[in-house]
């Protein structure tokens, strides 16, 4: 069965600090996709990134970077030079194989960035 | 491009009442999904539609829950005889065929008193 674990319930940092959000997943599928979403206080889940199981290249997008390691079943998310606007709950999600009709979400990590 | 919209954003009801939520997906997105999110947890899959056909339902979707997508565009989720345990955020998402990402709406927060 698919499972996503985000062990960090809440993290607090001071603005400009770097922060890494951990995501560990379990699946028996050989083909699958991983996602990160951001949920600000308004409630809407905002898509950040997706990664398929065959692409282990790390990705950088501005202050955001993602580290996908199949050997440890992890898909970690790093925010460099954090800003107050980064404060939100971040969710890691796993697709049901290459069927994108069911996503399995972790319990989320609440990030508090203080000025 | 208009995003996924949901209505209402908030609903307070008394136990035993029926409630109905609406979701309007991104236009041309033929897949539509409903999730439930309780406090401190991630979203949990409830059901999904491909066009007007409801193709999968989670065990979380009890007999009191029913979802429809009559014309393959907007969808409604009805909860009958609400219980306090139904209090949650109900999220809708949509996806276009042959792509891999679901796009979410702002959710409807239900409070059952």
Task: Give a verbal description of the structure.
The complex is a heterodimer of chains A (about 120) and B (about 110). Chain A has strands at about 5, 10-15, 20, 25, 35-40, 45-50, 60, 65-70, 75-80, 90-95, 100-105, 110-115. With about 120 residues, chain A is mainly β. In chain A, a hairpin with a 4-residue loop joins strand 8 (about 65-70) and strand 9. With about 110 residues, chain B is mainly beta. Helix content of chain B is about 0%, strand content about 50%. In chain B, strands 2, 4, 5, 6, 9, 10 and 11 form a seven-stranded mixed beta sheet that branches. At the A-B interface, strand 5, strand 6, strand 10 and strand 11 of A face strand 5, strand 9 and strand 10 of B.
Explain the layout of strands and helices.
The complex is a heterodimer of chains A (115) and B (113).
Chain A: E1 3-5, E2 10-14, E3 19-21, E4 24-26, E5 33-39, E6 46-52, E7 59-61, E8 64-69, E9 74-79, E10 88-96, E11 99-105, E12 109-114
Chain B: E1 5-7, E2 10-13, E3 19-24, E4 31-37, E5 44-50, E6 53-57, E7 65-68, E8 75-79, E9 88-95, E10 103-104, E11 108-112
Parallel strand pairs in B: 2-11
Antiparallel strand pairs in B: 1-3, 3-8, 4-5, 4-9, 5-6, 7-8, 9-10, 9-11
Properties at a glance:
heterodimer, A: about 120 residues, mainly beta, six-stranded mixed beta sheet, four-stranded antiparallel beta sheet, 12 strands, B: about 110 residues, about 0% helix, globular
Task: Give the integer mean of the pLDDT values of chain A.
Answer: 93
Helicity range of chain A:
under 10%
Mean pLDDT of chain B: 93
Order of helices and strands of chain B: EEEEEEEEEEE
Beta strands of chain A, count: 12
What is the strand content of chain A?
A: over 45%
Number of helices of chain A: 0
Helix residue percentage of chain B: under 10%
Radius of gyration of chain B: 13 Å
Number of strands of chain B: 11
Oligomer: heterodimer
- Structural class determined from secondary elements of chain A: mainly beta
Helix/sheet category of chain B = mainly beta
Q: What is the CA-atom radius of gyration of chain A, in angstroms?
A: 14 Å
What general form of chain A does the structure show?
globular
